[in-house]
Please model this.
Amino acid sequence: MIGQEELDFGGRVAIVTGAGSGLGREHALLLASRGTRVVVHDSSSDDALRTVRQIIKADGIAIAATHDALEDAHALVEAAIDRFDRLDIVVNNIGTVPFGRFWQTDRETWWRMFNTHLRGSVEVTRQAMPHLIVSGTGRLINVTSSALLGVPAASHSCAANAAILGLGNSLACEAREVGVQVSTVQRSGRNASTGAPAVLKVLGEELESRAVAAFVTWLAHEDTPVHGECFLDSGVSAAVAQDDTVMRLRAEDASPEGWANCVGDQCGLMAARQAFTPLRAELAS
Model:
């Protein structure tokens, strides 16, 4: 925006997981462009170094880290502490999505993908949290996607993203007490792991990764008061996910017939949905 002062991170230190490509790279680049010293994490050393070179070329400061986030998260966090002597920001962006129907995906592949998403975020967060507390203005941002709502051929990703949402909601309550702001961002931008060419084309044209990274970077700033929610972000538009407006239907008794009777002679999914009442409305009455 013309005339608006650029946010300055003043040498704060961030770890961005999955930062070798896609959205993760954009998070790292944008944070670095605003004065953040970035630990660029990725399983691919070539990709991590490519991001680091981009940051350094733009006069930023960054190092690459290729530790296994599931098994060696301690070493990843220590890399930040050893080099920069502090840690203020963690952006959990790790994940990959090989598509396949649930019953056609072998057990090992399914759990490996699930663990990459969920356990990778859990273990990095576990090791980073003491340092984020010491920071005094720690920021933890878990990046998920709309896959948590359920999409075909990606059950491992959907399940893990939903679990990360629950993790973020719980941590937001706990971490607030020790001065760490936790947020979950359900992004809609293009990512390298999105996979399907048609999807990548639309996302690349309509939802630039850098625009999604701008929202994450804003959340990560020490002066940003907004936190503790699941934010639905698609670039220049963002909203807060509301769980307390779930549509409800009340049965006269706890029996299959009771549920059938409360809908009456209405038929079809949309007709049944019209019989539900918002939770807020019920609580207010």
